[in-house]
Design a protein that fits this description.
Helix content is 43%, strand content 16%. β9, α8 and β10 form a beta-alpha-beta unit. It has 14 helices and ten strands. With 339 residues, it is of the alpha/beta class. The structure holds flavin mononucleotide. The site of flavin mononucleotide has 24 residues, from β4 and α9.
């Protein structure tokens, strides 16, 4: 027999809320990252339907001048699925309105609550939210502790390694774990790196070793720079993290979750079918204009089954088009042509 060995199936990762009454199992421990403007309920559902996703969470919902009502959280969350746990991500600069918003998230059916301490966008950073919180570990700890005390759902934190450097990473990790976070997703970039810079997986290894050394069992989810299915096992082996979160790699290849667990890779025809089915779902939910922009967003990143290999000029042409029928026709022809 030749060929690469099948990766061993990972055991589920289970996290619990206060009092251990409510647990969430990520099975497998492979999460779709929250991405504002990308991972709305339609995209999330399409990706989860392909299999291999152990958990996902909403795009961030920013709490500012008032509590977020359940009907708004429900819009972000979409219909609750029985086959995959989906959490609600909240972004708060302080404790105001957090408790009521968590109650809304519970009412809307959130499986768990994730708190965003990683967003680099100036509009967020300048309001002292997202990654700006990394400069204030005590304030982060207060927010986490309040959230943990307000719900039986698990409360996790998603953070970067630092703002301008990683010198305070372990101090922040300690504060977050001590405050009762049930899980920490670590995006292995700094705020100043935004998204383009290569991820530094050594920070994930350092974070995992640090927490274990301090006696914390808080699971670490490694995030950043998973570009292909094989990277998942590599990140786990190189860093010792308890699970992996995939962002843009899922837009490039929505099957990455399934194939990283040993599933059959998609054909080009599968890739074309996914694009068309995603476009159909967006049309049904939000109309043709939205479908055009979402399909172009996919085309910008899409590379599963080598669908644009040797066809970069066609990708460029599709990205310049403002006709949904033109984009759909490209995929439809592709569907027929390539097995
Ligand atoms: C377009 C876009 C939107 C994002 N929105 C969010 C968000 O709402 N909440 C969050 O915690 N992270 C957000 N992120 C960060 C991702 O969750 C993830 O941490 C980052 O993309 C690194 O993972 P990757 O290298 O696998 O893409 C976003 C990233 C992108 C590219």
């Amino acid at each position: 027999m030749t060929g690469a060995p099948m990766p061993a199936r990972s055991a589920p990762l289970v996290i619990s809320g206060r009092g251990n009454e409510r647990t969430v199992a990520f099975d497998p421990p492979l999460l779709l990252a929250p991405m504002e403007g990308v991972t709305d309920p339609v995209f999330r559902d399409q990706v989860i339907n392909l299999g291999g996703v152990g958990g996902a969470c909403t795009e961030f919902i920013r709490i500012s001048s008032s509590a977020i009502p359940a009907r708004v959280v429900r819009r972000y969350l979409g219909p609750v699925r029985s086959d995959c746990v989906v959490g609600v991500q909240l972004m708060a600069a302080d404790e105001d309105h957090l408790v009521k918003t968590i109650a809304s998230a519970e009412a809307a059916g959130a499986a768990w609550i994730d708190l965003n301490f990683g967003c680099p966008a100036p509009v967020v950073f300048n309001k002292c939210a997202g990654s700006a919180m990394l400069a204030k570990p005590e304030a982060m700890a207060r927010i986490i502790a309040l959230a943990v005390g307000a719900t039986r759902l698990p409360v996790s934190a998603k953070m970067r390694a630092g703002i301008d450097d990683a010198s305070r990473m372990t101090e922040v990790l300690h504060a977050v774990a001590q405050a009762g976070a049930a899980m920490i997703s670590l995006h292995a970039r700094l705020r100043r790196h935004s998204y383009a810079h290569p991820a530094t997986w050594d920070w994930i290894a350092e974070a995992t070793a640090f927490l274990r050394g301090q006696g914390f069992t808080t699971p670490i989810i490694g995030n950043g720079g998973i570009d292909e299915a094989g990277d998942v096992a590599r990140m786990r082996a190189e860093t010792g993290c308890d699970g992996v979160m995939i962002g843009r790699g899922a837009l490039a290849d929505p099957w990455i979750f399934r194939t990283s667990g040993g599933g059959v890779p998609p054909t080009r025809s599968d890739a074309a079918r996914f694009a068309l089915s995603y476009s159909d779902a967006v049309i049904a939910e939000r109309g043709e204009r939205a479908s055009l922009s979402k399909l172009k967003q996919l085309v910008r990143w899409y590379r599963c089954a080598g669908i644009f290999d040797g066809r970069e000029d066609e990708r460029t042409r599709l990205l310049r088009s403002d006709r949904l029928d033109e984009l759909r026709a490209w995929f439809a022809v592709h569907l027929e042509r390539v097995a």
